[in-house]
Amino acid sequence: MGGIGVHGIRAERRSEPSRLADLLQRISSALIRAPHERLPGAIESALSGLGDALGADLALVVTRGGSRIAQQHFWERSHQNGVSRPLASDPLPAILAELHPGKTLVCSNRKQFPGAAAELPAQLASGIFVPLHDDADVDGNLAVLALAPRSWSAEAIDAAERVADMLSAGLDRMATRSTLTKEQDARLHAEAETRTLRDQLAHSGRVSMLGELAASLAHELNQPLTAIYTNAQAAHRFLDRKRPALDEARGALHDLGQDCRRAGDVLGRIRQMFRRHETERVPLSVGALIEHMLRLLHEDAVSRGVTVVLDVAPGLPPVNGDRVQLEQVVMNLLVNAFDAVTAVDGPREVKVRARARGELVDVAVLDTGKGIARGDLERVFEPFFTRKPNGMGMGLAISRTIVEAHGGRIAARHRAERGTMFELSLPAAPAAVSTKGGLAL
Fold first, then answer.
1. Assuming Cys at both sites, which of 34, 272, 330, 353 could form a disulfide with 42, CB separation 3.0 to 4.6 Å?
2. Cα separation of 45 and 90, whole Å?
C-alpha cells in the first residue's frame, strides 16, 4: 500500500504536529494512488495509521445506505505488539450508523457521548466522531475511540477531520465505481437479452418459411429417394439374371450411393437452415452463400417456371456474419421475388447480383413482378405489413433486423423497366480475413 500500513505508518518520536502532518501526507497519497480494487485495503490502512498515531484503541468508519449499513471498515489495537486486526462482529457499526452529527463531536468521557453513542460498550470512555459529508455522495461517520477518558488535542481533532475528508473521497470513488459497474452489467444483460430475442425471432421466421417451402423441399427430397428406389430395383434385376450382369449391378449400386449422399445433402441443408443456434460471426463468401441458397430453392424455382440469373462479381471480399441468419435474409428475398413474378403474366425472371462498393458488399435481388406501390416501399419492412393474402408480414421485418445487427442496410427500390429491387449492403471483412473453400461452415 505504498508504505501505508500498521508498520509503514508507525509514527516516529517527533512532535505531534510533525508526526501527524507526515502521516496525513502518506495517507492522502496512498488513497489517491490506490486503484479501485485496492481502496478497501487503503482505507483500513488509513484507519490503522490514524488510530495508532492518536494513541486510540479503536478506529472505524461506517457508511449508511438508507436505513442500513452500506460499508464498514475497522481497526482495533491488539494487546500484542500493536498489530491491527479486524473486528469480526460487534454492535459498534450499527450504533455508529445511527449517529447523524452535523459537525465533529469531541467527547473526553462517556457522559459527553451523543444519543445512540451512549449505547457503546462500557469499556469505551472517549472519542472523536466526524461526519463524512465533504463534497462526496456518501453518508456516514468516522469514529476514533479510546478505552480511557482523555482530552483530545486540537492537532488530533484536525487530523481526524482531514482523514475523514480523505475517506469520504475514497468511499465516493468506490460507490461511483460500484454504480457504474451495475449500470454496465445491466446494459450488457439488456444487450444479451436483445440478441437472444433477435435470434428467437429469426428462428421463428425460418420455421414459418419452412412451412411455405414444404412442397418444394419435399419435391427436392423426393428426387434422390426415387432414384435410390429405381437403382435398387435395377441392381436386383441385374443380379437375378441367369448370368448376373455384375458390372451393371455395380453401376446401379454406385448410383444408389450417390443418390443417398444427395438426399443426405438436402436434409443437411434443411437442418442447418432451420435449427436453433447461437449467433456466431465468421468470414463468409457472399457468392458461395447465394449459390448455397439457390441450390436449396432450385426445385421451387423450377416448379414455378422462374428463371434465375446469377451475376456475382469475381474476387468479392468476404463479410463477417452469421451464416444461417444471412442465408435466411437471402432466402426471404428470393422467395418474395418468386412470389412476385409468379403473380403476373410475362417473363418470370429473378436476377441475383453481388458487387463490391468501397468497403461494402452489395447484394441485390431484382424481379420482373408488378412492383410495390411507392408509398409502401418503406412500409414493407414494418412488422405485420404484408401484401400477400396468407402472409404474416414478418419476413422483411426480420431481415432488416438481421442486416442492421450485422452493421448493414437493406432497402427496396422500383426498377425502371418493371418490378422491384431489394438491395442489402454489408461491411466487408478486413483484407487479412479470408475464407476457406468459399463458405465458412
1. 34
2. 20
Question: Per-residue pLDDT tens for 239-270?
Answer: 888 888 888 888 888 888 877 876 776 666 56
The residue among 43, 284, 260 whose CA lies nearest residue 140 is: 43
Angstrom distance (rounded) from CA 8 to CA 84: 12
Supply the DSSP symbol for 26. Answer: H
Q: Domains along the chain?
A: 16-181 (3.30.450.40), 213-275 (1.10.287), 280-441 (3.30.565.10)
Burial (CB count within 10 angstroms: exposed 0-12, middle 13-18, buried 19+), residue 387: middle
The residues that bridge with 425 in the sheet, in sequence order, are: 362, 409
Query: How far is the C-alpha of 22 from the C-alpha of 382, rounded, in Å?
Result: 69
Sequence-ordered list of residues with C-beta below 8 angstroms from that of 428, at least 6 positions apart, any chain: 317, 318, 319, 356, 359, 360, 361
Read off the pTM.
0.43
- Here the cell at position 362 is 452489395
DSSP state of 407: T
What are 311's strand-pairing partners?
353
Q: Using CA of residue 118, residue 132, residue 53, residue 156, what is the dihedral sign?
A: negative
Continuous H helices in 128-213: 154-212
Number of helices (H), then strands (E), in the chain:
10, 13
Q: How far apart are CA 386 and CA 13, in angstroms?
A: 87
Angle separating helix axes 39-53 and 16-33, nearest 10 degrees: 180
Distances (CA, A) of 340 to 60, 61, 206, 374, 420: 77, 74, 20, 16, 9
Render pLDDT for 33-67 as a digit per residue (tens, 0 to 9): 888 778 888 888 899 899 989 999 989 888 876 55
Which residue reads 402472409 in cell numbers? 391
